[in-house]
């Protein structure tokens, strides 16, 4: 088990004692930006983003969540947070990037995105320069940046999927969800060939059920797209998740010893443990992401 994995293992012990504990043995490793997406909506992305972010934060990592889901049940609603401004207001120059940040449970930082990323791509050269400065400042305060992109293959979702280095595709065991997850994997394979793609099966009936589903997607992806998918893990269908959602609380904090919480801790451990390999030891912050987006958008017009 890696050092980070051990740290997270200790967190689950702390949770059991209803205690949050900052672990001081963090290694200084490169920053990572991870997008979470799905083919079909309602598969549990936003819940996963929040709870994985809290698991990482409680192991001492500085975590920034970007809520870029344009759907209705997004992160602010799940946490009962009201945010007057989003990235869109940053793009129009009404407020600064620092103004829109909110602190969520477990010390995670949240940036409400709206359709701001798309709007940002239409900003002028001058505006971009100041935006890049703010993004770098934001990056300096985060070890992990997790982007909830929303579902499907809309331009808003694709903006992220094309340029993010690490992508988690979430599916449930439902055949339509699996088919749509594969469609998303296929699009990523064409649009962002260097990306590292991870699969999470949520609302799984059993570990075996999840393994079979991830196995099927992986076999097809290997055969027809020639790519390797990484099965990050699964989260069981758990009534505690519904209870926590109804209370607008993350289940990891309300029900730390629930099966869903344990599963989230396990897959977060795996994610943290894969750090060096996945990042290629490079820094992947929001400033790098947006400069890739800006560059590509410009070259498309040449
Ligand atoms: N592991 C789970 N077990 C039971 N219900 C779940 C689980 N994960 C998510 N849900 C339920 O599914 C619904 C959709 O979750 P959400 O995170 O909003 O999905 P998405 O962001 O993909 O649209 C929520 O109401 C939540 O209660
Ligand atoms: Mg959502």
Outline of this structure?
Helices cover 51% and strands 16% of the residues. The chain is an alpha/beta fold.
Topology, please?
Layout: H1 3-16, E1 32-38, H2 45-58, E2 63-67, H3 75-79, H4 87-91, H5 97-100, E3 102-103, E4 109-112, H6 116-120, H7 125-140, E5 144-151, H8 155-163, E6 166-171, H9 175-191, E7 196-204, H10 207-225, E8 230-236, H11 239-246, H12 251-254, H13 259-273, H14 275-279, H15 286-300
Parallel strand pairs: 1-5, 1-6, 2-4, 2-5, 6-7, 7-8
Antiparallel strand pairs: 3-4
Helix pairs in contact: 1-13, 2-13, 7-15, 8-15, 9-10
The chain binds adenosine-5'-diphosphate and magnesium ion.
Magnesium ion (MG) is lined by residues 45-46, 69, 71, 73-74, 148.
Walk me through what this model shows.
The protein has a single domain, classed as 3-Layer(aba) Sandwich (Rossmann fold). The protein is 51% helix and 16% strand. It has 15 helices and eight strands. The chain has helices spanning 3-16, 45-58, 75-79, 87-91, 97-100, 116-120, 125-140, 155-163, 175-191, 207-225, 239-246, 251-254, 259-273, 275-279, 286-300; strands at 32-38, 63-67, 102-103, 109-112, 144-151, 166-171, 196-204, 230-236. The longest helix is centred in the C-terminal third of the chain and has 19 residues, at 207-225. Residues 16-28 have low confidence and may be disordered. Bound molecules: adenosine-5'-diphosphate and magnesium ion. The site of magnesium ion has 7 residues, from helix 2.
Might you state the CATH topology name?
A: Rossmann fold
* Overall CATH class: Alpha Beta
Ranges where pLDDT stays below 50 over 5 or more residues in a row are 16-28
Helix content, binned percent:
40-55%
**CATH homologous group name:** P-loop containing nucleotide triphosphate hydrolases
Strand content: 15-25%
- Tell me which CATH architecture applies here: 3-Layer(aba) Sandwich
Computed structural class? alpha/beta
- For the CA atoms, what is the radius of gyration? 18 Å
Tell me the overall shape.
globular
**Multimeric state:** single chain
Gap from first CA to last CA: 48 Å
Overall structural domain count: 1
SSE topology string: HEHEHHHEEHHEHEHEHEHHHHH
